[in-house]
Design brief:
The structure is a homodimer.
Chain A lengths: L6 E6 L2 E5 L4 E3 L4 E2 L3 E7 L3 E7 L7 E4 L2 E2 L2 H18 L5 E7 L10 H15 L5 H12 L3 H4 L4 E5 L8 E6 L6 E7 L9 H7 L6 H21 L2 H20 L10 H15 L4 E5 L5 E6 H12 L6 E7 L4 E2 L2
Helix pairs in contact in A: 2-3, 6-7
Chain lengths: ~325, ~325
């Protein structure tokens, strides 16, 4: 019976952007205005099982054990349409996905979700896309998911169009012993999701200026990683995060993701670095802070962070690998 | 008749702080937690005439032609009490003060106001306090007024107590051909004045960290001025401004003085400097931005600033002198 083979399970990690993705030149295809660069987060795992099943009358999506409907289901079903088209099949699928990290931690799970889904669904459908093709496919589900496909330290090449807009690994996870301390200061759902936020980017009078500076910052960041130069990394990571949030705050309507606790963490991290500690801070589209540190500083930094007012939780992740089949 | 001699007129300029004053160790005496450093603003003039008059039954305060009452009058009357005590006189005074710059420009006028009042009132009362004594007296009216007494590039020495907390000129106005382009983006009255703001500083978990870094930043700023090193000045001026606003935003209740237009100006200035222009930005307790530039860049920068969205007005000031008697 054919059904037995039309299933697969994949694992992928979320990633933290060192150089941010904010704004598309094509929202539908999720073609970004600029390149971006990230580190995959080991230990934070999304595991997704996909089975195409002739008995199904519609796609189903179960997230952390809960049957999904509405927008969440539609986003998955639309993504499966791409896979069905590529594979030339017309079966509906059941998608079961679970994260081993709390959704209340404010870690963007869509990158890991669509990286795992792209791999599991194509494998289940009998496709072998290769890393670039898989990264490109994952991008259609969530832009930053393309960086979770190769994993490690990954750069999203913006490309000239759909065909060449995907991510490549610039260094494997073991290249540099960094840690991401994810500092949770707010557990509420964000009011404006990333997809909606990307569409607002163009309304900021700072977006063109931010975009113009990205190639130089990408170069700095890539070099810092390849040379394992923490101070250079710290400066460009913090500057790039500041640029993105300046764009957000000056959008129309403005996006204020930070809380006072966000700032308390950021400024303490800067003060620690001024004292000689290898730590820096970056913030995605939300209030929580990712503190990047050399592994040897991680225990010290975690203790300091936990003592700051407003800090609810600190999660820890090392550089992680790419999306992979696990059964 | 004695009355003819009991009057004097003085002129003083406001100043822009390169290293900010934010938070007191003694609110009553306005003894600051840290030193601070500023440039007096030539062409922005407060002229104050004081006459002690035996015919008056109370102090009077006329500001820009309008008779004042309530808090504004009380603040002047309390200040005159210090002068009366020093001079051993018990006459009431009429204070007439006017500014040649629009109050809607959001330039803190209290520094110039109390510097001019301190000089005019002591002169009218027959006192000769000398620069340090006058600076110390002006401080009791408004902390930053002590820096407008010596003028030029002035550093407020926090001192060990009331007696030695005053400002000194570290370089005269002609030492360095800088320009302050005051970029007005909001003409509304600020909701929280500086005196109230200083009292909130201690509620920020970042204030102690900010304060700890001030001596190093003062040293950097002083050296940058003495060496006329614009890049060094720019970096420390922007960092110190960022620290103060981080404290404000993390106070309880938080103080958000910036508008989106504030950020648009700040980030454009940073981008221009990255392109090689000698410009930097600093923001006082309000939304308007002071863009400090080398004089040779001022015309170019002013034109760029006027073209930014949200910019209502740009005023221009060179380094100014100290408080002086003008009649």
């Amino acid at each position: 019976m054919i059904t037995a083979k039309l299933q697969a399970t994949a694992l992928a990690h979320p990633n933290i952007a060192f150089i941010k993705y904010w704004g598309n030149r094509d929202d539908q295809l999720r073609l970004p205005l600029t390149g971006s660069l990230s580190m995959a987060l080991d230990g934070l795992d999304t595991v997704t099982h996909v089975s195409f099943d002739p008995d199904l009358a519609a796609d189903r999506f179960i997230l952390n054990g809960m049957e999904q409907s509405g927008a969440a289901l539609n986003r998955v079903a639309s993504f499966l349409d791409h896979v069905r088209q590529l594979a030339g099949i017309n079966l509906f699928a059941q998608v079961e996905s679970s994260n081993n990290y709390p959704s209340s931690a404010g870690i963007a799970s869509s990158a890991a979700a669509f990286a795992a889904l792209a791999l599991a669904a194509t494998k289940a459908a009998g496709l072998e896309l290769g890393e670039a093709g898989l990264s490109r496919l994952a991008r259609l589900g969530s832009g930053s998911a393309c960086r979770s496909v190769p994993g490690g330290f990954a750069e999203w090449l913006p490309g000239s169009g759909d065909a060449d807009s995907y991510a490549v690994q610039i260094a494997p996870p073991e290249h540099w012993d960094l840690v991401d301390l994810i500092v949770v200061v707010d557990r509420s759902e964000k009011a404006v999701g990333s997809s909606a936020g990307h569409k607002l980017a163009a309304t900021s009078p700072l977006q063109a200026l931010r975009v113009a500076g990205v190639p130089e910052r990408l170069e700095q960041c890539r070099t810092a990683i390849l040379m394992r130069d923490f101070e250079r990394l710290a400066q460009v990571v913090e500057l790039d995060s500041e640029w993105m949030h300046a764009v957000m705050r000056t959008s129309n309507p403005p996006l204020y993701y930070w809380t006072p606790a966000t700032e308390v963490v950021i400024w303490n991290v800067r003060a620690w670095r001024a004292q000689g500690h290898a730590v820096c801070a970056t913030v995605d589209a939300g209030p929580n802070v990712h503190v990047i540190a050399l592994a040897e500083e991680a225990a010290w930094a975690e203790a300091q962070l936990r003592a700051l007012p407003g800090v609810l939780e600190v999660l820890k992740a090392k550089p992680g690998g790419g999306a992979r089949i696990i059964n």
